[in-house]
Amino acid sequence: MPDRLSALDASFLYLEDSATPMHVGGVAVFERPRDGFAYEQLLCLISQRLGYLPRYRQRVLPVPGHLARPVWVDDPDFDLNYHVRRAALPSPGSDEQLFDLVAQLMARPMDHERPLWEAYFVEALAGNRVALITKTHQAVVDGIGTVELGQLILDTTPRPCEPYEDTWVPRRLPSTPRLVLDAVSETVRRPGELVENIRVLAGDAAATADKLADAVGGVASALRTLIRPAPAGPLNRHVSGGRVFAVVRTRLDDFRKIRAEFGGTVNDLVLTVLTGALREWLLSRGESLDAGSTLRALVPMAVLEPDAVEFSTAGLVNNRVEAHLVDLPVGEPNAVLRLRHVSHAMRVYTDSSRSVAARAMLRVGGFAPATMHSLAARAAGSFSGRIFNLVITNSPGPQQPLFAGMARLTEMYPVIPLARNQALAIGVTSYHGNVYFGLNGDRKAVSDVGNLAAMVEDALDELKGTHW
Asked: How confident is the model over 371-399, as a mean pLDDT?
């Protein structure tokens, strides 16, 4: 029997529209080595390792009459050159031009008749650099059978790509009678599945929220205990088809120094810095704030299963991501008090024995932050947009250099998708002594996302103070 999409995976396809494509992205910037790093070398590297990701050569095949959820099938017309494309920036090849390109690419939905991922090799970036922009649909990366492409193409040491003969042969597509027969058989065994599929197909997200949330883990309980709507504000707007993307580069040592002085975790400090930036951004837009004003962030976090003994690479993909709702105190004018509020709100989750500490995740050498961000986006996608204002994901990354082939990775930024009526999503990743913020916004509702990015730096400086 073909591999059928889960209810959660199917929901990401059914509820997607042209304004809210449900793919997670990433931007990786590389220093070009002396002997170069060309498109052909990237193709070689990806083709070498694509066998570890069977889902990346499969497409979604609908069942006639929508009698059951679609199935994953091998794409008989799979073309690696279609999925890995070349792009070049016009002179002068600035970072601003790169991130404008990111915004344009992320706004485009993917072709559902092909495997649901794309990669763009961007050349002519100033400073003898190249970039890799990736897009992967949320239905693909489940953290169990499939991880994000970036997890496999990055190594801890430079390695030239050796010649590789691809022996992959696609399996035959199932016939229409076979698809119908399998669907009918499944409906007989589990009649509720047909009703559930019709509801999700019709866009009745509310009717299936609890079931989809259970697939992510832990979200349904949060929905039942916290039903009040999110505070009103400029972030909950109808999302257009356009995007804007901005980044912030900071030093991990700055966060560690603040932690040593004021306490809290690095994650608390990241949320506090973003709270300060969002406060200034709201004020710059003429929003009225009082001491009790808040914005509610949906903050996905990795957790261990109750019976897990330790956090390991093998256990990672079987672990879950739970999305927590955190009220950010944007009305508090004092930066240190904002940190106290955030730390108190997060302590409920971080004190749990099931929470995965950042230091534990950093010990897992093969784990790519991109996979964590993909799982976080899946968790966020199962929430009702009425109960939060924005999504913030934070995944610690490796603190040693990484390489794609012979090219050294210098920067990495996550691009978190926007949900309906959610105009801003922020992804944060630490890597090799730096902390990188990727701010993905709606072009109409948050056109000034560049101002918000600058305010992130100001908020960090505010916490640092002038005595360092």
From this structure: 79
Which residue's structure tokens are 């082939």?
A: 405
- Contact 463/335 with Cβ under 8 angstroms? yes
Supply 312's token pair. 């390991």
Q: What is the per-residue pLDDT for 313?
A: 39
When the candidates are 3.30.559.10, 1.20.1110.10, 3.40.50.720, 1.10.10.10, the CATH number that belongs to 3-153 is: 3.30.559.10
The residues, any chain, with a CB within 8 Å of residue 442's CB and separated by 6 or more, are: 237, 239, 240, 242, 243, 244, 418, 423, 424
Q: For helices 7-14 and 205-216, give the axis angle rounded to 10 degrees.
A: 130
Give per-residue pLDDT as tens, 11-56. Answer: 889 888 999 999 999 999 999 999 889 999 999 999 999 988 899 9
Domain range 216-464, CATH architecture: 2-Layer Sandwich (3.30)
Say if residues 2 and 71 touch (Cβ distance below 8 Å). Answer: yes
Burial status of residue 163 (CB atoms within 10 A of its CB: 0-12, 13-18, 19 or more): exposed
As a whole number of angstroms, the distance between CA 417 and CA 185 comes to 36
Which helix (H) or strand (E) segment holds residue 60: the answer is: strand 58-61
437 with 453: CB under 8 angstroms? yes
The segment(s) of the chain belonging to CATH 3.30.559.30 are 216-464
Q: Are 61 and 75 in contact (CB under 8 A)?
A: no
